[in-house]
Amino acid sequence: MILSPSILSADFGNLQSEIEMLNKSNADWIHVDVMDGVFVPNISFGFPVLKFVNKIAKKEIDVHLMIDNPDSYIKQFSEAGASILTVHYESCTHLHRTIQDIKNNGMKTGLALNPHTPVSFLENIIADINMVLIMSVNPGFAAQKFIPNTYNKIEELKKLIESKQSKTLIQVDGGVNLDNAKMLIEKGADSLVAGNAIFNTPNPTETIKKFKNITA
Ligand code: DX5
Ligand code: ZN
């Protein structure tokens, strides 16, 4: 399982040491949540923070865009250090073009689905994307309650990926913790994002180790 701790719950007064902690830990990627206050009712951070994270990080940076009109910023995210760029299905009118643009800028492609968006909408795009991010909360905030219908969506997505003989990864984001991680992996999640359940524990490095020891 690819573990991607979300720095939305990190201590921003000590961001450098938080990233260094992740560098030394068993975490695989670093999840960076960008919010614009339009697509979601919250504002997080943008390029200066991402560039700083990229300077310190020794792991791949997994950027989750919760913004309107992501097309305007694709090149800038590539230059700022994103290795995987995930856009929301709900914010892209010409999704196929957006996905090609992410690829052409040298990044891996991710596509996020809000809790209400059906997996079946991906039928004609799934073969073009490296990863689908299933939102297990409504995007915008850390530490929200996990939505159980996520389990059904993972199963459905797994079937769709297999039917297309695609290698697309399944990532789950929102309310993920040490209690639901095993079930998520059993249902078919390849990657888990966790913020609150890592950074708000007494020993995040140990918590990361516990996540990484969970198997199906
Ligand atoms: C929510 C973000 C998540 C968030 C997860 O909109 O996309 O990545 O940081 O936080 P937790 O794990 O605390 O639910
Ligand atoms: Zn996220």
Named once each, the bound ligands are: D-xylitol-5-phosphate, zinc ion
Main sheet properties: 8 strands, parallel
Distance between the termini: 9 Å
Q: Strand sequence of the main sheet, in spatial order? A: 1-8-7-6-5-4-3-2
Tell how many strands the DSSP assignment holds.
Answer: 8
* Helical proportion, percent range: 25-40%
* Sequence stretches where pLDDT stays below 50 over 5 or more residues: none
**Strand content bin:** 15-25%
Global Rg? 16 Å
What is the succession of H and E elements? EHEHEHEHEEHEHEHH
What does the model show?
This protein has 216 residues and is α/β, with parallel strands linked by helices. Helix content is 33%, strand content 20%. It contains eight helices and eight strands. The protein has an eight-stranded parallel sheet with strand order 1-8-7-6-5-4-3-2. Strand 4, helix 4 and strand 5 form a beta-alpha-beta unit. The radius of gyration is 16 Å and the shape is globular. The N and C termini lie close together (9 Å). The model has no long low-confidence stretch (mean pLDDT 98). The structure holds D-xylitol-5-phosphate and zinc ion (ZN). D-xylitol-5-phosphate binds next to strand 2, strand 8 and helix 7.
